[in-house]
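Hi Y.,

Following your request, here is the sequence exactly as I used it, all 982 residues.
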Amino acid sequence: MLVEKEIRKLLADAYHRAALDSEADMRLVTDALETIRIPFMQEHAMNVWNSFTLNGTALDRPFIRSLLLQLRKQYQQALLQNITGEIQKGFEQSAVKGWEQFISLYTDALIYWNGEIFGPLCEYPFSFSSEKQLSVQQLKKLNRLVFESRWLDAESLYEWLMAQQGVNEAQRAAIHLVLGEIELFHQLRPDLALGHFQEAEKVLGKTSRVLRTYAEYYQKTGDVSQCREMINLAIANDDNDLENFLLMGDTYRDEGKLEIAEQWYRDAINVNFLKADPYVKVMSIYGDPAKYKEKGGEMGALLTTIESLEPETAYTNVVYNAYRDAGSLYSSNDMREEAQDCYRRAIELHTEWVTAYIDLGYALGIGKKYAESEKCFQTALEKDSSCYDALNGMAWLAEQSNDLGQAIEYNKQCLTVRPAAAAIINNNIGVLTGNMGDYAGSKNYYQLAIQSNPRVALYYTNLAYASEKLNDIDTAIKAYEQAITLEPFNAVYHNKLGNLYYSKGDFEHAKACYEHAAEQNGNVAVYYENLGLANFNLGRWSESAAAYEKAVALAPAWSAYNYIGINYYRLGENEKSVANYLRAIELEHSTPILYDNLGLAYDQLGKKEEAEKAFLNALKLEPENYTFLNRLGVFYSFNGDFEKALGYFTKAIQYGKGEAVLYANAALAYEKLHRWSETEDAYLKAIKAEPENDGYLNQLGVFLFNCGRYSDSINYYKRAIEISESSAVYWQNLGLSYSSLHDWPNAIVAYEKSASLAPTKDSFNLLGIAYYNSGEQDKAIDFYLKAIALSPQEAVLYNNLGLSYQSQNKFAEAEQAYQNSIRLDPQNYTYHYLLGVLYYNHGKHSEAIASYKMAIQYGKGEQVLFDNLALACMAAGRYSEARDVFKNEIKKAEKKDGVYNLIGLMHFNEQQLPDAIENYQKAIAINKDEPVYYTNLALAYRDSGKLAEAESAMKQAVQLNPSEENKQHLDQISDLISHESR
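Below is the corresponding structure, written out as tokens. Let me know if you'd prefer a different format.
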């Protein structure tokens, strides 16, 4: 646009001015001017001042800055003059040629944001036709909207411009980039934005500007890594393009890494210190609430620098927008007066523009100056009656005044002004409707917003919120899933979706969502806390603890330490559990549950004193908390101090408002203290409090069973079974009570039900015992064998099997069964004894003797063992051994009459009748009520020829036991006496 001669003259004039300045360092002047000489010759004229490197560190001196700013102004003036001249020449050729020249050069200026060119061009009195005059009016409107950053209003005009004759393909491609950014940042339609960027790339290739728009796309969709990769490619493509440095800084600012962001902005200043935009970005750092106290005081100086670099004219907006930005930053730090001053300064700069009025309206509204706020919005509407943002401000103001109905009406007016914004407006109405408590209506508006624009994640998340309020969790889940497809890297969405699944009890899906959230942003403690909670509910204690440990590494919190402690407690790692509870208590020493949990962990470690102290600390913080009172009761119960336990249970009952478990625990303490009536009463109160609690009914049944009240226990077992028919234990307990009453048919029914529910060795064994006592030995044997199949190493099962075989007179099978029981439990004297009985009954007296001797070895002096051994010795004719047994036994026997009787039998068998009579008499002297002793004595007298004594003894036997056998013996003796008298 400027020929080489013109550029040289501009540079020569700059050298001349510098030479006249006594403070100018000509070496630096030369460095600066020669740095820009080549770009002046080679770069696009509209963009030349953005295309070279002016190192701020080396060159930023007041005289250099002043010199270059004056040169820039002269350059722009010369450029505008040349452009208008070139267009005028076009019109001299033809109206068509003139228009094409105008529209092409205007578009060039617009796409390079050169307002000092595209603004004045629309005011220049070219020879436009009436039709083109209307088009110029459209361009003037577009100019104003661009200057005011009203991008949504400008969108349709950009599309109109693209269609104009004279706009070339490269210019259309550049407009695609602008439209894409409007879609991305304002319409919130990233996929449509991407389409525009791809169209631009087809024409422009991978220029710095194109690559940067892709970076913006990835930034908006949450893929920060890909965003930065694209920015680096853009910088490699053009390291003078400041916008790349600024965007990179923005990515770090968004992450809260303000120092890194500022460094990128400073790097941009060093690339070209004449540009104001980097200083605006630095101001955004200093105005951030995290930095404001430290750096906020420097914002004024930055604004002064910005004004010096970009002196405001009718066709520039840098300073205007800088003051608007400053106002927003002051507002975010609650510096309301300063914010309002900034907005007023912006208004002074451009009184006809509306955006600063709107900004001021919001600032005043936030300060509850509603009348002044409304005046600002109304002023904006007077200047532009179709200003969407001003109507939106009125809607906001109505909302602040809690006139939500009026706010909705203003939003509907917004819809008439900007139908293309239907999605945004319906979303706003959805929010307002929801705030009025009408979540069904709110949900409908969000669905309308989605219909208008299904590519905005926010609408789906709002729909999810309304659906959740309506308890429509499935719709809420689907909405968040759709939001995630649009913004897959948004950690917040993954976390929210996890919360929804968690609320449904679907902890597996919740866990997966929390894992995704943590993957996208590993610096948020709550994501790990939620992941820990999901794993906790899944019973995955190790994974839960690991997640919570990551959470506390990011943000120590007592609740997280508490959960870590609980997880380790569940894992049995109680030392770690205690350590984490103590950390929790360090952070929050007034929460009683922490002490309660600590007590449980100490108790598991066997540290009883520490456990007691912890439980008492919990109770000290909440002395009327029945849970803590109950906990101490349980603690003392397990440690055998039932009196103290009962005291705490009693207090717990006082504050527990009829909690059944408290009565049940008190019942256990009463039982241990042998306070039977109070035990039963406590169980009855527990049952009254929870009549459908089968556990308490069963516990009372067990208590009554242990008291020998079998019929009463049966009633409670039956009630427990009515509630929980599938409990094998209840059926088994019922069977035991029937067994104790020798009601074998009912016992069998109960045991069979128990075995069908839980086919265990115990259930089969009990069935075997019941059938044994019912005389059904085949069935008894069958169940004993089933029990043995499940537990082949349990000796008692073989013993029971042996009893059944023995009752069937199956010697070999019984012998094998008893031997198996002895093999498994060789020191159990009962098994040796029963084997001995088997041998004795089958005439295997020697084997019986050996078995009885083994029984005596382990039997701790049981008299019956000696008796049976003596009988076996006698049966084997081994009287000497029998005498030795009797000698030992007579010393130890508690019931010596039985021993004397056996000794008498031994002498009787040996026909040592006087000795037999003597021992029978000793037995009778000890126990005069045993008829068999008299019978044995009578028979000994008879064989000794002492028939009168025999008759007298036999009569006594008949008197005590008038059995047929005894009567026959008496008749025989009487006959002998009669015969002898004859």
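The first helix runs from residue 4 to 20.

Thanks again,
Q.
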